[in-house]
Each structure stands twice: as C-alpha cells, then as structure tokens.
Design goal:
Number of domains: 1
Radius of gyration: 14 Å
Mean pLDDT: 86
Strand content: 25-35%
Shape: globular
Structural class: alpha+beta
Number of strands: 5
Distance between the termini: 23 Å
C-alpha cells in the first residue's frame, strides 16, 4: 500500500541522498484510520519527475524481494537513524485511532 495525497503525514524523516535520488520515510494515516509507513523518493529526471513517489513506484520495486522490496538496501541506514521517532509516531498514531 503506497501513500496517497488524501493520507495525513504524521512524521517524515529528513531527506537522504542515495545515488541520484533523495529518499525519506514517512508515517501516515489513511482516511480509514490505518497507520502505515512508506519510503518516498524524489525523481528529478524520469517519469513522474518533480514529485515525491512511493517506493512502490521505484523502477526495481518487487514486493516479493523480502525486506528491501527491490529498493536500495541503504534505506536501512535512513530508518535506523530515525528509528525512535518512527516507532514513537507509529505507537502514538495507533493509540489515537478512535474505537
């Protein structure tokens, strides 16, 4: 499930340059009150240039590729650098969902 404009971003990491693209991780809530994470990448050159795109739009994306889904493995470094903030936001976001 990728991020859409109707979703509310609860937290975003600072951008990290990986290769030729900028990446960031977000925690977001859907209009149906589900809380998810996604990696977003900025493409300055190709199709969809000039906008943040979900990792699901990454050219080598493969949902069957285990932990990295065909995306750059160095994304782990981005996650690890902001793990506490990401986990805190996920926990707070889940607790704030009305019953």
């Amino acid at each position: 499930m990728g991020w859409y404009a109707a979703d509310k971003i609860l937290y975003a990491t600072p951008e990290m340059l990986i290769g030729k693209h900028r990446w960031k991780m977000i925690v977001y809530r859907t209009p149906h009150n589900h809380v998810y994470t996604d990696f977003l990448w900025w493409d300055d050159w190709g199709f969809g240039a000039g906008r943040w795109q979900s990792m699901e739009e990454w050219p080598k994306y493969n949902s069957n590729d285990g932990l990295y889904a065909g995306c750059p493995h160095i994304l782990r470094k981005l996650y690890d650098a902001h793990k506490a903030e990401i986990e805190d936001t996920l926990n707070a976001g889940r607790q704030a969902i009305p019953a």
